[in-house]
Amino acid sequence: LDQGMMLHIKDMQMTDYTTIRVGIGSSRAPYILPVILELFRKHDTQTNIVVFELTTDEIKQRLLKSEIDIAISVYDTDSSHIESIKLFDERILLCENSKKPNNCPIFPGEGQLLREVMNNVVAHNNSYSSNYIEVQNTETAVALVKAGLGFTVVPSYFEEFSFGDGLAYSELPNSFSKKERSISLMYRKDKTLKKEELFFLECAKEALS
To answer: Which among 2, 12, 24, 104 is least buried, having the fewest CB atoms inside 10 angstroms?
Structure first.
């Protein structure tokens, strides 16, 4: 850890308990939060962490209303009130079960970027089954792939933080996903961050950048 982080650790050892409210998407939380909080908890066992699993729009609205302190979400270019720190670029990958191959498409719900990408994947390959499964949650889709019921598309963090789930992930042509998404830390520009919140940001950057 760098000197700045060590100073935060020393300060926190002399303060009362505080609470950090974190907003994050429900599909990202199981993959991203453990690596951040593992590092955070090595040095701060006193701060309370309250996680709100929300949609991207809900995260933005709650952040603007100061109902959450820190957000981990798709970078918002539309709000002049939000400060952001880029963590990583999120790619979309094909997710298959190499041991139980199945050409049945498992579609994410309508209105999602993943659904748009999946539509492109199926449209460019006539060998896929005309029957399909549709789900709303990405983790549900991955669970069905694990069961050998088909294939789907997922954000790249599923591969990076899957911890050996046995599935095969592969890159897709750039033309299948024309929208680039950067995952960022975000907080209100007019918010004075507590030292615990600053330390959380430092841990997230070290764990994910």
So the answer is: 2
Those residues whose C-beta lies under 8 Å from the C-beta of residue 4, and which sit 6 or more positions away, are 202
Alpha helices (H) in the chain, listed in sequence order: 3-12, 29-41, 56-64, 113-123, 138-146, 157-160, 195-208
Least confident of 79-83, 161-165, 184-188, 205-209: 161-165
Average pLDDT over the chain, rounded to an integer: 87
User: By the 8 A CB rule, do 199 and 5 touch?
Assistant: yes
Query: d(Cα 185, Cα 198) in Å, to the nearest integer?
Result: 11
CB 151, CB 105: distance < 8 Å = yes
Residue 19 has pLDDT above 90, yes or no: yes
Which pairing describes strands 106-107 and 181-188: parallel, antiparallel, or unpaired?
unpaired
105 pLDDT more than 90: yes
CA angle (15, 16, 21) in 5-degree steps: 105
Burial 114-128 (b: 16+ CB within 10 A, else e): bebbbebbbeeeeeb
Joined tokens for residue 66: 């100061």
